[in-house]
Design a protein that fits this description.
Length: about 300
């Protein structure tokens, strides 16, 4: 059975077409389109005209691709930028009008749940609790879980695009801005800090997105090539992460554009992402970092396989 999954994220719309069978799935096609839905209005709760049209155009393109495959079902999910926008429902209606695709607007709690399923499918989780972190453009999800289930999950309005617009960092980012960002994150993340005290957390699982760039940046810096060889889980040495992070955080936009392993659409937000992850690693004194290539889309697939008892 072929299925199409579309994750309508804040920065990118992601499409995955997969064949489900026998407790596994085979990727048939996958791509992403940078839409930057939050451009010019993410913190005011409105999708501006230009990103609104980019989003609709991306969905029209995806529908053409889906039509060229033997897809049984289409599952499309709208996340932070759309659910928090006053015209988010209008966007969903525009997509339906132009493509016929029904988009489901999901809560942050549901988004975190699907992210957990995706990461459990990708990584070797154990009985010990892990902290899962998924940095989106509009929100960041944190999940405390092990291989059998979720202990706690929360979606924070701390996506990289929101933080970028709020703090408007210099080029390169200044120390006062770094301090302001760290203080803001500590304040907003109090529910996580409180809950995390209940669990012996030692590892961070970074879910797709910016963590894909971490894998590539570390690969080119320490191995002269990308580490991304089709695995679903990568172990990253923390000293490598910290060294790359220090370089990225203090780099200019122009320097990042020339950095091997960093794709163009992450050049602006990667500084925020590294600062965010660094804070989490330091605050919780974590000693292991895993990067998962799976996230929400694969979480949906995990649910579908369970539903159809594949």
């Amino acid at each position: 059975m072929q299925v199409a999954i579309i994750d309508l994220g804040t920065n990118t719309f992601n499409l995955l077409i997969a064949e489900l069978s026998h407790q596994s799935f085979k990727k048939i096609f996958g791509t992403r389109i940078a839409v930057k839905l939050g451009e010019g209005g993410i913190n005011s709760g409105f999708i501006a005209d230009a990103p609104f049209q980019r989003g609709v155009d991306a969905m029209i393109e995806y529908k053409k691709i889906i039509n060229s495959h033997s897809v049984h079902t289409i599952s499309a999910f709208a996340t932070s930028a759309i659910r928090s926008a006053r015209n988010g429902q209008l966007f969903i209606e525009a997509v339906k009008q132009h493509t016929g695709v029904e988009v489901e607007m999901i809560s942050g709690d549901r988004e975190a749940e699907l992210i957990y399923y995706g990461n459990r499918l990708a990584t070797n989780m154990t009985d010990a609790p892990s902290l899962i972190m998924d940095i989106g453009g509009g929100s960041t999800e944190f999940i405390i879980a092990n291989k059998t289930g979720v202990f706690w999950k929360h979606s924070f309005l701390l996506g990289a695009a929101r933080l970028l617009e709020k703090f408007k960092p210099e080029n390169p980012i200044g120390e006062s801005t770094i301090d302001a960002l760290r203080n803001y994150l500590k304040q907003e993340l109090q529910p996580l800090f409180t809950e995390a005290k209940k669990y012996p957390l030692t590892e961070l699982i970074g879910s797709s997105g910016a963590f894909d760039s971490v894998v590539d940046l570390v690969g080119y810096a320490y191995h002269a090539e990308t580490l991304n060889t089709g695995q679903t889980e990568y172990m990253i040495q923390l000293d490598h992460f910290k060294a790359i992070g220090k370089k990225i955080i203090h780099s200019t936009t122009e320097e990042r554009m020339q950095t091997k392993g960093l794709i163009a659409m992450r050049v602006d937000m990667i500084v925020i992402s590294f600062l965010f992850v660094t804070l989490i690693v330091e605050e919780f004194k974590l000693n292991a970092l895993k990067c998962s290539t799976y996230s929400l889309k694969e979480g949906v697939i995990a649910e579908l396989m369970d539903k159809h008892k594949l």
